[in-house]
Amino acid sequence: MTSPDGVAIEVRSLWKIFGPRAERVLGGPDAELDPDELRAKTGCVAAVRDVSFTVRPGEVFVVMGLSGSGKSTLVRCLTRLVEPTAGEITISGEDVRAASPAQLRDLRRNRVSMVFQHFGLLPHRKVVDNVAYGLEVQGVPRRQRHERARAILSLVGLDGFAEARPDQLSGGMQQRVGLARALAADPEVLLFDEPFSALDPLIRRDMQAEVVRLHREVGKTMLFITHDLSEALKLGERIAIMRAGAIVQLGTPEELVGAPADDYVADFVRDVPRSEVLSLRWICRSPADDEHLDGPALPAGTIIRDAVPAVMESARPIRVVEGEELLGVVDRLDILTAMSGRAGTGS
Amino acid sequence: MTSQAPPAPPVQAIPPTAPRDAVRPPRWVVPAAGIVAVVAAYLAFRGTATLPHDDDAAPFRFVNDVRAWVDANRNQSPVFLFFVNYIRLFVGGLYDAFLLALQAPGWAGLIGIAAALGWLAGGWRIGLLSGLGFISFGVLGLWEASVATLALVLTAVLLSLVIGLPLGIWAGHSPRLRRLLAPVLDVMQIMPTFAYLAPMVLFFQIGPASGAVATLIYSVPPAIRIAALAMEQVSPTAVEASVSLGATRRQTLFKVELPMARATLGLAVNQTIMMALSMVVIAALIAAPGLGSDIIRGLTRANVGLMLPAGIAIVIMAIVLDRMTMSAAARPPYPVTGGKARIGPRLRWAVAAVLVAAGLALGRVLPAEFPEEWVLRFAAPVNEAVNWAKFSWYDVTDAIRNFITEVLLNPLQAVLTGAPWWLVTAVAVAVAWRTGGLRTAAVAAGCLLATALIGLWQHTMETLTTVLVAVVLTLLIGLLLGVAAARSPRFAAVQRPLLDAAQTMPAFVYLLPALALFGATRFTAIFASVIYAVPPVIRLVEDGIRNVSPAAVEAALSCGSTERQLLWKVRLPLARPAIRLAANQGIVMTLAMVVVGGLVGAGGLGYDVVSGFSQRTDFGMGFAAGVATVLLGILLDRITQGADRRPSPRTSDRTTTRKKRIA
Ligand SMILES: Nc1ncnc2c1ncn2[C@@H]1O[C@H](COP(=O)(O)OP(=O)(O)OP(=O)(O)O)[C@@H](O)[C@H]1O
Ligand SMILES: [Mg+2]
């Protein structure tokens, strides 16, 4: 279900300031201070500062940033688990900040679900009752909600664990339960707050694959918080990088790696194997005068690594084309330089 | 942006299929069948196999014979000659020494010393509190009695600490000793105060020595418990570091563990003192000197004016000793660097010395006795006020009392005393089995059979009735206020200081307003035990609900729970261990108070105990009644604690271990 204008989540100039007299800080000149000065001067923490972005229906939108950069606060503001200080939030056409408590509950029950870093399971309930909790608070009769919960449990690969207690499951399984609970009400939007940080690397990879699969199968809009760059690159169609409450850059993985907006972002993406993210567009150069332009052509969007065989086979530079237009050429040396990770900041 | 129709609930799409768990009978079938069977049995056998009370039952006579034998052989039997009598002499001598030491500086001197100690412990505030507190003993006209009480408390506390702290520290290091002590301490802590008294009389006769020993026994468990806890809380890394540097066990104990456990050990001292204070009053029943005798006399004659000054004095003493020990324990043992400049040690001692000297000097000029003109006498106006209150609120108090008596007490008592003993036992065993398994069931059966055997079935059932009614009220009020406090920080902020104050007061103080309002009736004991037991229940419930994992609460909120759903589906279920603990505490405290209520017309076992001290022929019955209260305490405690160890979900024992580690 999409909003008529093709926007699932729209956030405009969102602020969240923790502390006494937050509104006053927002109105005054203090809002411009950097975090440490602000805290020293007013005792307030600006956890989210003037954040704006939109998420398209069906998109996986990733927010990343270091610890304390305000990611969790941002995602909690979306359903007002944390009350924003200022700004606009629209989720599939509905103005969240203007919603009454009943409308807000309706939003949380039916349209937006959340998966938490520490799972947030209810230890006194069986797995099936955890998954069915959202339906239970809506007043769905027991039989129906259990039916639904079992169906979802098998979707996330937990057949046969319905009667277990949460703490009899491993961390990865517990997070599957968290995922199932979020899916049970069939929401349009899923919010993930660092869902896999507490898991070990192997299980994390499984779970990421699970999310990719679910995204393919159920096609939800997802907003995914992480501080793990490789996770962001694996899942995100677009990534927003936050620092000290503000978004410093928003773009596709390629854009972030190819053209970091500042040193902070550059630092973030430094260890990314560029050849696996960047496409030829980022490394092609204008042909030198003496170069032959009769080598094979590859589209500009080809990932560098995928271009390796073609380049190795051809003695001539490869032509990088966008439709009919020639963007430039790459030769073996360019490819090797890019793969060794020492290329400049791109064109 | 256009608004949208709300999306259709997704669940409607699910095709109905056969329910999977239709085969098993619903969970309520077995209990319901049980209840029907019990009701049927009650109706069929009502009035048969009851065990009516007999003042002259064989067990009572046996105890009387034992006492006669002990009295006759007190100076012949070697056990007495070489052991018990020496303890009596030693404890009595210690008490006399303390009394002499407290009387020596004269009243003004003692006030000066108290103020100086307060100053050393916690600065001018505590010094002032302590000085004024001691002055008030004189103003209340109770100087001599207060000093006697203080001497008794100091005797008992000193002995408790000498025994309790080393034992506790040892137990903190030795899991085996801990396991050995745990059940003993458990039983000691659920024993109603009255139960200690009769054996004391048997061995140590009446007087200060047996009063001090009774108080000592009552106040030693917290000393042991908290000292052991203090040892367990010392960071294992610090101990390991000390050992790895080659320290001996002794060095590690004195240089690392004890200093690190200082604050908690201070709490042990504090708790021991508080326990001792509430016991010395009751020890007046066995002729222990001090404030207690006024209170006991006031209680038995329903004379509020007589006991109020003594009650106030004991509360003041409790507050002074509590604040003094707490702030002494909280003081960092080393000078704090940075921050506000503190008063140097030399100046501290100088001020203390000045205070003491001033007191002693004043003592020279002032009369040796606390001047009569300064004494405030208010027994008569208080009694008038009480009468006025009784008279003008009669309608309300009478209505409340009658309602509880007619609707709850009488029917329940009729059922419990009218049912055959085997039926009551069977029900108790079934409940115990359900909540705590086979062992608890065996304990329950044992307790009830023993009660029947010692000839106190009927009175136990009467006391049980009062306890049950009081517990229901306590839990109801405690849950309501606890939940309210957990939900509204403002309400909690108003309530907390009241709870703090309530928890420093010695138990029987609560009998005072109860007696003033309701006279000497069964309901008085209920009222007193409810106000006595409600504060800790509120606190445990509030903490339990507040400490529910915020992650679970947030997750439930994000699913769209209402506040009410959050409370019923998440907060209360997750706080269940805390609520069970609250119920257990509530029951144990209620029982203790209901038994003391025997003094003010609650009847039952408490009354038997009291009359055991006033009439020599009833000694056996009083002794047996003390035993019966212990049996009842064990029964109720096991049933409610057992509920905590129910084997089903793993969660519950995880939370309890976590709780223990934190505690
Ligand atoms: N309830 C609160 N009260 C006051 N300050 C808060 C509160 N919650 C968060 N903050 C502050 O807001 C800032 C952002 O916190 P937030 O939890 O959103 O960070 P995060 O990016 O999610 O970090 P992490 O990766 O560690 O989860 C931090 O400086 C934090 O101290
Ligand atoms: Mg976070």
Automatic annotation (TrEMBL), chain A:
Homology family: Belongs to the ABC transporter superfamily.
Highest rank taxon of the organism: Bacteria
Name the UniProt record assigns to this protein: Glycine/betaine ABC transporter ATP-binding protein
Keyword list, A-Z: ATP-binding, CBS domain, Nucleotide-binding, Transport
InterPro entries noted in UniProt: AAA+_ATPase, ABC_osmolyte_uptake_ATP-bind, ABC_transporter-like_ATP-bd, ABC_transporter-like_CS, Gly-betaine_transp_ATP-bd, P-loop_NTPase
Highest classification ranks of the organism: Bacteria, Bacillati, Actinomycetota, Actinomycetes, Streptosporangiales
Molecular function terms from GO: ATP binding; ATP hydrolysis activity
Residue ranges constituting the ABC transporter domain according to the UniProt record: 33-269
Transport is among the record's keywords: yes
An annotated GO cellular component: membrane
Record keyword Nucleotide-binding present: yes
NCBIfam families: proV
Annotated GO biological process: glycine betaine transport; response to osmotic stress
Protein's organism: Planobispora siamensis
Automatic annotation (TrEMBL), chain B:
Keyword terms, alphabetized: Cell membrane, Membrane, Transmembrane, Transmembrane helix, Transport
MF annotations from Gene Ontology: amine transmembrane transporter activity; carnitine transmembrane transporter activity
Coiled coil: none
UniProt keyword annotation of Cell cycle present: no
Main location (coarse class): membrane
GO biological process: choline transport; glycine betaine transport
Entries under Gene3D superfamilies matching the protein: MetI-like
Residue span of region Disordered: 643-663
The ABC transmembrane type-1 domain, residue ranges: 146-325, 460-640
PROSITE patterns listed in its UniProt record: ABC_TM1
Membrane-topology descriptor: Multi-pass membrane protein
PANTHER family the UniProt entry points to: GLYCINE BETAINE/PROLINE BETAINE TRANSPORT SYSTEM PERMEASE PROTEIN PROW (PTHR47737), GLYCINE BETAINE_PROLINE BETAINE TRANSPORT SYSTEM PERMEASE PROTEIN PROW (PTHR47737:SF1)
Family: Belongs to the binding-protein-dependent transport system permease family.
Name assigned to this protein: Glycine/betaine ABC transporter permease
Species name: Planobispora siamensis
